[in-house]
Amino acid sequence: MQSHNDNYGPSDSPPLVDSDASSGEPWDDSPAQGPEVPSQEDTEATSQVPFDAPFLVDAFEQLRGSVEKMYAVVDRQAGLIDKLHEENERLRRGEFDRMLDPIVRDLIALSDTCLRTAQAWLARSSTTPADTAQVLDNVAGDLTLILERQGIEVYEPAAGTPFDRKQQRSVRTETTSDEANGGMVAATLRPGYRNGARTLRFADVVVWKHVPAEASSEQWA
After folding, report:
1. Which end of the chain is more exposed for a tag (fewer CB within 10 A), N or C?
2. What is the share, in percent, of the chain residues with pLDDT greater than 90?
3. Are residues 194 and 166 in contact, defined by beta-carbon separation less than 8 angstroms?
4. CA 30 to CA 16: how far, in whole Å?
5. 140-143: which pairs have CB atoms within 8 A and are 24 or more residues apart?
């Protein structure tokens, strides 16, 4: 009994089977087609397209004109900004000068007072330390008035008031056996200055330090 393959003769070969045989389409063994190459006629037709040079020249000229106008606007704006800055600085200097004018006038008046006092002293045969102290007190009083006219307050903590470390500086302490005086101001050595709520210089004060009588006696025993 022969197998199924024995039905073919020696010169016969099995028929080729197309992968798309189920679709019934014949096998296409022609070479694959590449991209279409333009013909010589198409190339010559493309090269004969006219080049509009005047149009490009006009376009570039318009672009250059627009850029030049833009630079001109930027230059005008920069000049305007510089002018406004100079005007602002001039106004600020004027306001500062007007603010200083009252202080300058007061200092000029104080200088006149000192010169008159010096001339008066030259006419005296002698001066005493009390005279010098009086003149210096007057100068300090005039300076205090100048500061007060500018909103600067001079303050001297009173003795017996609580020590305030936000506006006062303790330069030394004094002992006391009275507990109620502990932490109180004993004396003011130098006044303080403040501008509204802002302290410009602390007042130098002496502060009482409470020491019990027994401890004080033991210390000196």
Report:
1. N
2. 33
3. no
4. 16
5. 142/106, 142/109, 142/110, 142/113, 143/110
| Element (DSSP H or E) covering residue 170 | strand 168-176
Cα(67)–Cα(63) distance, rounded to whole angstroms? 6
pLDDT level of residue 28 (50, 70, 90 thresholds) = low
Give me the amino acid identity at 45: A
Residue from 203, 204, 209, 213 nearest 173 by CA: 209
Asked whether 159 and 186 are in contact (CB, 8 A), the reply is yes
First to last CA, the chain: 147
For 136-188, write each residue's pLDDT tens digit.
Answer: 899 999 999 999 988 999 999 999 999 999 999 999 999 999 999 999 999 99
> Is the separation of the CB atoms in 204 and 180 below 8 Å?
no
Given strand 203-210, what is the order of strands in its sheet?
168-176, 203-210, 185-190
Has this prediction a pTM greater than 0.90?
no
Q: Which of 188, 114, 105 is nearest to 154 (CA)?
A: 188
Non-local CB neighbours of 26 within 8 Å, separated by 6+ positions: 18
